[in-house]
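Here is one chain, start to finish.
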Amino acid sequence: MPEGHSVHRISRQFDRNIVGLAVHASSPQGRFAEGASMIDGRTATQVRAVGKQMFLEFDDDVWLRVHLGMYGAWDFAGEIVVDPTIASANGRMGQTNQRGTAVEGAVMDSAGENSLTSIGAPRRARVRVRMSEQTTGLNDEDLEWPPPVVGQVRLRLLTEITCADLRGPTACELQTPDEVAATIAKLGPDPLVDDIAEGEERFAAVVARKPTPIGQLLMDQSVVSGIGNVYRAEILFRAQQNPHTPGRDVPGEVVRGMWRDWVRLLSVGVETGQMMTMDDLSPDRYRKAMASRDDRHWVYHRAGLPCRVCGTTIVVEEMATRKLYWCPSCQT
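Its structure:
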């Protein structure tokens, strides 16, 4: 499932490539035909990301709400302007494993996590990448425009030069401003949306009164926004916290430390496009970790392997229908 950093990156791509422009909207799949007809021809006026949800506003207070869920993704094609605020210092511009579109100097992630053309579940797409006014990547003549529809596209948003295809979302609906406000009000604090200090107080107060295991609370979007299975496992390990401890029994300083860690990790994820959760790596190890998620995490997806710290075998179990990875020794 795309986690909070991916949705914020999607929002920034929309802000640079869609907002301010009139769009042609269609639903090739047919499941969002009525909604697409209502926004067809309208101008996108602003975009917001909160946790795992994105809200795109059009003329006359019409809002599109999208929740990617487990399998959803936005596939971008055409001319894409790279957001310099999410281009990392080592030259990675966001492109990964899509054939023919690698940006010079990029670190390649075989899992497609840091994909410019598809944010969410990795897909194949073709794109012209622009940084400022310089175009690089595929030759213009290699691109068919508009690009052919491939697979089950719930919603296509098309400008003169950019195409955004939405596939497999959990939610894709139009909302009024009041409905948007009500949806956001149900969500926990997001470090990139809410005041960080106020968000910490909200998070700490909720956790302090909950008997629910902290491993479940971190995944509860009404408690804190944006954390998914990967960040949950990694934040708990970095805090040396047993995931089964009831929230109200977790020391307050540990709870606050997890919030501050989420603030940092989310910013790193938005900047790099990858869920990097290991610190103080050498340049070679950092580059290796950026290229492979097997070298990027402390415990996630490492069931049966030795803990990187103590050597104890990492275990995996099911918690609230999701896989939980943790070290029974470090996280006592």
